[in-house]
């Protein structure tokens, strides 16, 4: 599992870098899927190909002549034996399939589906199709996946949010905790725990102060009632 995660994370990091570069140049790929991701060499160097559907997305001045060409003579990324022949619709964003307006966040959705496949071991093509459909329908990873890969599950669900504007950008994911080492993750969790403990202590002190105020108000009320009773008898 450690080696698997290391290889997958290295590959996904490169995919994100490539997609971030595409987006930073005002383009949307629109057809990101395993068959369009190519691995070159023993170090798993990633190249993104098949820009036949790529389109401009708010191109900035001076970028009109930017040309992206397909990559050839390299090995397509295959997550398992069942990836071949997968329809593009499995990776397309909801807004793409609806034919409505979409932007670079559509590519981000495709990244989420691919990340899910990279870490999820499917035994059959039917299981793969069913699990991806469940993810697309409910934006939730299966329980077994979340238990084994909690950080990856959080990232997958963020990337495949049904609301496009809620999805992180490729750059956001590149700077996320997904790519932290185990030691860095432990330190980050320790800092989060410390912040939570401080926040809980602050809230506890606030509750104590509120209890004091309530107790004082009750004493004041009793004194006022006693004073009213005294005035009545006088």
TrEMBL record:
GO cellular component terms listed in the entry, alphabetical order: cytoplasm; nucleus
SMART domains: S_TKc (SM00220)
Protein name according to UniProt: non-specific serine/threonine protein kinase
InterPro entries registered for this protein in UniProt: CC_SR_Kinase (IPR050339), Kinase-like_dom_sf (IPR011009), Prot_kinase_dom (IPR000719), Ser/Thr_kinase_AS (IPR008271)
GO biological process, one term: negative regulation of translation
Coiled-coil ranges from the UniProt annotation: 179-220
EC number: 2.7.11.1
Catalytic reaction list: L-seryl-[protein] + ATP = O-phospho-L-seryl-[protein] + ADP + H(+); L-threonyl-[protein] + ATP = O-phospho-L-threonyl-[protein] + ADP + H(+)
Domain of life, per lineage: Eukaryota
Keywords: ATP-binding, Coiled coil, Kinase, Nucleotide-binding, Protein synthesis inhibitor, Serine/threonine-protein kinase, Transferase
Keyword Transferase in record: yes
SUPFAM superfamilies given in the database record: Protein kinase-like (PK-like)
Domain Protein kinase: 1-180
């Amino acid at each position: 599992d450690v080696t698997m995660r290391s290889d997958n994370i290295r590959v996904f990091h490169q995919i994100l870098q490539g997609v971030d570069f595409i987006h930073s140049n005002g383009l949307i790929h629109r057809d990101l899927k395993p068959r369009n991701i190519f691995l070159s060499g023993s170090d798993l160097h990633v190249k993104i190909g098949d820009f036949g559907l790529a389109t401009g997305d708010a191109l900035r001045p001076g970028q009109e002549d930017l040309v992206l060409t397909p990559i050839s003579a390299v090995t397509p990324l295959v997550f398992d034996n069942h990836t071949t022949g997968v329809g593009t619709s499995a990776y397309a964003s909801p807004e793409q399939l609806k034919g409505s307006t979409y932007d670079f966040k559509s590519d981000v959705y495709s990244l989420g589906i691919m990340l899910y496949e990279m870490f999820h071991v499917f035994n059959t093509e039917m299981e793969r199709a069913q699990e991806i459909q469940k993810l697309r329908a409910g934006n939730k990873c299966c329980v077994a996946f979340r238990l084994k890969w909690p950080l990856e599950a959080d990232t997958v669900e963020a990337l495949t949010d049904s609301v496009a504007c809620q999805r992180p950008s490729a750059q956001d994911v590149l700077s996320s905790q997904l790519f932290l080492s185990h030691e860095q993750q432990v330190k980050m969790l320790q800092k989060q725990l410390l912040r939570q403990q401080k926040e809980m202590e602050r809230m506890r002190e606030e509750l104590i102060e509120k209890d004091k105020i309530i107790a004082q108000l009750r004493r004041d009320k009793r004194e006022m009632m006693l004073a009213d009773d005294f005035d009545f008898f006088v």
